[in-house]
Amino acid sequence: MQYHQAESWGYYVPMRTSMLSDPLEKVARLASGSAVVIFSISSCCMCHAVKRLFCGMGVNPTVYELDHDPRGKEIEKALMRLLGNSTSVPVVFIGGKLIGSMDRVMASHISGTLVPLLKEAGALWL
Questions:
Q1: Which of 37, 86, 87, 124 could be 93's S-S partner, Cβ–Cβ 3.0 to 4.6 Å?
Q2: pLDDT single digits (tens) 32-72
Q3: Is residue 4 very low, low, confident or very high in pLDDT (cuts 50, 70, 90)?
Q4: Positive or negative CA dihedral for 23, 6, 44, 108?
Q5: Would you indicate the residue range of the signal peptide (predicted)?
């Protein structure tokens, strides 16, 4: 599998579409593959903001750009089911655990709980 440097953040990893048929299983598998995983759409301003937040903290997230995947819409619908709302991206997983979308990430950051989560997952060493 080839990894591509994704602008200034982490790595964009092309998804293999034939691996798993159930989108929720695929999300779970991908989410547990790295310390920080972001499901994103390349043209989404909130996705860009959350990627910048993590990079600004010294974290290199693995980013899955759903608009670059043939099954991206299916995965996006699965993420919407996980979140229980209509906003599907960005969706952040830390240590394989669902954190949520931008509002949950920012609330964790402001309350001071984001850094300990990142340290526990091995995404930050400071």
A1: 37
A2: 999 999 999 999 999 999 999 999 999 999 999 999 999 89
A3: very low
A4: positive
A5: none
What is the tens place of the pLDDT at every residue in 70-92? 989 999 999 999 888 767 799 99
Rounded-to-integer distance, Cα 91 and Cα 44, Å: 12
From 31, 49, 33, 25, select the one nearest 109 (Cα to Cα).
Answer: 49
Cα separation, 69 vs 54, in Å, equals 23
What's the rounded Cα separation, in Å, for the pair 45 and 8? 15
Q: Could you write out the DSSP letters of every residue in the chain?
A: ---EEETTEEEE-PPPTTS-SSHHHHHHHHHTSSSEEEEE-TT-HHHHHHHHHHHHTT---EEEEGGGSTTHHHHHHHHHHHHTSS----EEEETTEEEESHHHHHHHHHHT-HHHHHHHHTS---
β-partners of residue 11 are: 5, 62
